[in-house]
Amino acid sequence: MAVSTRPRQALVLATTLALALSAAACSGDSGDGDSGSTSAECAAFDAYTGNDGTTVSIYSSIRDAEADLLEESWSQFEDCTGITIKYEGSGEFEAQLPVKVDGGNAPDIAFVPQPGLLKRFADAGKLKEASAETKTMAEANYPKEWLDYATVGGKFYGAPFGSNVKSFVWYSPKLFAEKGWKVPTTWDEMMALSDTIAGAGIKPWCAGIESGDATGWPATDWIEDVMLRDAGADVYDQWVEHTIPFNDPKVASAVDRVGKILKDPKYVNGGFGDVKSITSTSFQEAGTPILDNKCAMYRMASFYANQWPEGTKVGEDGDTFAFYLPAVDPAKGKPVLGGGEFTVAFADRPEVQKVQTYLASGEAANTRAKLGNWVSANNKLDIANVENPIDKLAVEILQDKSAVFRFDGSDLMPAAVGAGTFWKGMVDWINGKSTTEVLNQIEGSWPK
Amino acid sequence: MEFEDFAPKLSMLLYGVIAFVVIIGGLLLLLDVVPNYFARRREAALVAASVSTTDGPAPPPSRRLRKPGEGLLGLAFLIPALLLLLIGLVVPAIRTIILSLSNGDSTEFVGLRNYGWIFQENDIIRVLTNTLGWVVLVPLLATGVGLLYAVMVDRARFEAVAKSLIFLPMAISFVGAGIIWKFVYAYRGDGDQIGLLNWLWTTLGGEPQQFLNNAPWNTFLLIVVMVWIQAGFAMVILSAAIKAIPSDIVEAARLDGVTPWQMFWRVTLPSIRPSLIVVVVTITIATLKVFDIVRTMTNGNFDTNVVALEMYNQAFRYQENGQGSALAVFLFILVIPIVIFQIRNLRRQREV
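YS: structure for the whole thing
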């Protein structure tokens, strides 16, 4: 029996080997070529040359189509400098990065979207301080409030790259025009408009906070946005840094202000059901009833532009657009809640520092923006390079001098709260628990 | 999209397939070649021995007599297993215990504080009671359903078809099952219900319910998913055990005129007791570790959290290594008595 099968096994083995060899031969063809770019195209990258043949690894949470655009954006940098960028995106970035770093397998550069995580690595001595060139470049291109988030103990660790603006309310310009509603410019106007819309038989608000293992984060964004408006940027900072407790009356006041919208059955949840349905509606689908006029407004970040069904026109004259979530007291400036990723390094080889400097440059921002669907707080970013209208609006807000920018608070808090009990607490809160109970619970979970 | 865009990914895929084929093929080859080699050697040895017995001295009478070097050979075979056990189990277990006595970022020794924390936080106590509910209900229900089914379809028509139907869910991953059942329980406020349960409920005239939001029933609904998967496993093992009951016992009982009821309790159940214990123990351990179902369906929200999920969250999402490790050690301690029970049971069986 064993003897009779042997020729067949040999055949299988031979076939697999042949396949393997031919595949290697195929891919060998595409390996070379394209290294001789013209010098004119490469003039912009002169400052980054001198490390030909080196490799820099980058690790981030950006995947799929967005990751392809990212890689495309720095392909010319690679061609001209000879530095190869090895990019890896992961859906489990936040959980895997500490594992990689603690295991001595850190990437050269990581795009960290949470300043809290950045601080943890910096405190643990894992991060390398940014080079003087990177720092100069970042200081020239980004506002100080952004750089402060990447500065720990007086040391600067890396420039921001992509950004997003969260203080947006999506609506249907068609429906608004048809009913004669005006985009509100103050909080009171917005609440009055909500009543008008409810009076017209349409649920004014949509909401959804389901997001897999991150369920709850859209509600924390709501609270943060309103904290900035209700209590002001200074109190917001104290809240985030835990110099005032989480169950402080000022926080409770902001939460209750959100509750007036999210926990009022008259106002929510168009197209999905009652208040509790918010917890089981995914944030991706939560805004779509706007297209069917089942609800009128949905507070969600700029990146929601990519979530609309194919064929939806996003723009002031389109099917859907967003307005800036108005301030409670416009005299105090224009609070903007947002987020972004910071390009920090775990290695200080010269090529790593060059890539880091390049990522902080206006060149990098404009190249990436031209490929579409991307916003940055980089002030060298030419608004003409930003194609879609919502990204344009976001860049305008980020570059606005009266804007008071604050980073997403849950990304600044310790992970146990910012990615744990705050999210969970908000789910419980929507599901029926009282403001006091939830805030006490979160305060109790703050790491001592 | 041009073909060139896909080409690098396709070649990656090709490499993957080739690597898979080479490794699996190699393993199969190895499995075929190595035993054959030894078989042939033994054959040759036997032939040689039979030849030598005809004219040489008689072989030693006792086969229990050990050849020198056999112990060494045994050790050589044991080393890979021991090494893997050491790397994969013993070292991590010890490290986890050490971590569980340290603070969140493992820089300071904090004694038993993390264990105290398990029993202080309201949230964690909820996690413990939920896990208790799982451990009590899942083995009971899954084994009960599996046993009932095994007895009922035994020697019935279409037995094979009926059994494969209930065994099929075993082939689905916990995550897959979680997603399927999430749709079953899905809720829509107005318009058509997309969830089977809510559709039934509203067709019967009820208001749509958010089943997964309401504690404690939501935990029970998650338990149903686990039972759905595990009942097939229980059924297969128990059905085999029932078939293995010697037919003379069954016939003797029949001649004595037992009722089906008596047959089940007095004959079937005592005969399959060892298999029953194996099934209950296996399902209990699987239940203690349940993670995927809860994570996919509610992510531990709405008071449905369980120990394994909280352990993962604490250690990998909140970066509270101490608390996460303490939960892991606690889970380990919970499993120990079950394992001891199982081992003692196996020993007793061997002695019989």
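YS: worth flagging: Chain A touches chain B at residues 2, 5, 9, 12-13, 16, 19-20, 23, 26-27, 30, 94-95, 98-99, 120, 124, 212-213, 215-216, 269, 271-274, 276-277, 279-280, 414-416, 419-421, 424, 427-428, 431, 441, 444-445, 447 (CB under 8 Å).
IM: good catch. Also Chain A has 20 helices and twelve strands.
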